Amino acid sequence: MTIELICKKTCSTCRKAVALLDERGIDYRYREYTDEPLSKKELKDVLGKLGLGPKDVLRKHDKAYKELGLTGDESDARLVDLMVEHPTLLQRPIGVKGKKAVVGRPVENLLEL
Predict the structure, then answer these.
(1) What is the pLDDT of residue 102?
(2) Which one of 13, 30, 52, 72 has the fewest CB atoms closer than 10 angstroms to its CB?
(3) β-pair type (94-97, 3-7)
(4) Alpha-carbon torsion angle 73, 63, 91, 108, nearest 10
C-alpha cells in the first residue's frame, strides 16, 4: 500500500520527507495540499487516523493564522472549517497509509508507516 504524503512544495521539511522516502525506496503519492486541498471529510478522516484534534496540528506561525486573528481557542469544528478553507493552517508533512497517519516532524516519523 502506497503512502499518501500531504505536503507543500515550498516547505523544507516536506522536501526532506520526499528525500527520505526516495532514499529508502518507499512508494508514495505526493499530494500538494494547496493545489489538491483535503475535503472536510478527508481532513476529519486524517485527524482520526492521527489520533489528534485540529488544535494539535494547527500551524500557529502560518500567515493565515495571523490574518484570520486566530487564538488557538477556536472550537474544533471551526478549526476544521478553517483548515479546509486555508490548507496551510495544517501541519505538514503528513503521511497516511491505510488506517494510520503520522505528522512528519521529524521526517523520520514517516518510517513508522
Answers:
(1) 98
(2) 72
(3) antiparallel
(4) -130
Q: Where are the alpha helices (DSSP H) in the chain?
A: 12-24, 40-50, 63-67, 76-85
CA–CA distance, 7 with 110 (Å, rounded to integer): 12
Q: Can you name the residues that pair with 97 across neighbouring β-strands?
A: 100
Active site residues: 11
Residues in the chain: 113
The CATH number for 31's domain is 3.40.30.10
Burial of 59 (0-12, 13-18, 19+ CB in 10 A): middle
Please give the DSSP secondary-structure letter assigned to residue 91: -
For residue 1, the model assigns a pLDDT of 86
Structurally, how many domains does the chain consist of?
1
Whether residue 102 contacts residue 57, with contact meaning beta carbons closer than 8 Å, is answered with: no
For the cut 90, the answer to whether the pLDDT of residue 15 exceeds it is: yes
What are 35's three cell numbers?
Answer: 493545489
**Domain, as residue range, for 61:** 3-112
